[in-house]
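Weekly modeling sync, notes
Attendees: AB, CL, MP (scribe)

Item 1: holo prediction request
CL wants a bound-state model with zinc ion before deciding which constructs to order. AB pointed out that an apo prediction alone won't tell us much about the pocket. Agreed to run with the ligand included and paste results into these notes for async review.

Input as submitted:
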Amino acid sequence: MVEGSGSGAVTATVQGSGGVVVSEAEVWKALEKVEDPELPITVTDLGLIREVAVAGGRVRVRLVPTYSACAAIDVMRQDIRLRVLALPGVEEVSVELAFDEPWTMARMSERGRAALAAYGLSLPGRRAAEPVSCSYCGSTNTTLENPFGPTLCRAIYYCRDCRNPIERFKPPAE
Ligand SMILES: [Zn+2]
């Protein structure tokens, strides 16, 4: 038996009651199916999962609270709980927010960025303070029109060149 330290360094599978074993890899695989309810991106591509720890039949998932202002985070937490609970050998799931490290765009995977760009969202760069570029013509001659887009995670910009409204993914720090 391996002691679950909760440090995230536990990679060995441990025996849950009933003899069914769940591994961290299986939990990660289940998490890859959890999508943001408002955007076509999974929680793993979003970089939302900070840590998965397995100890016997107990699983702890820690999230980086990117969307703390959005109702989406509660939907995702619930979805994560149900998906992980459905795995054989899992008896208990806790989904916590880890406030020790802020979410940044750097946590988003290339696949996630590609998915959001294909969806038509303008994305912030990996570094802050880059100009907002138009998702239609690429111009940076843009202006903030409405900081509150259709959801709290999006803002509306306006392109002065092609005169299109631009939906921009809005990370918490922006
Ligand atoms: Zn434009």
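Recorded for review: The chain has a mean pLDDT of 82.
Action items: CL to compare against the apo run; MP to circulate these notes.
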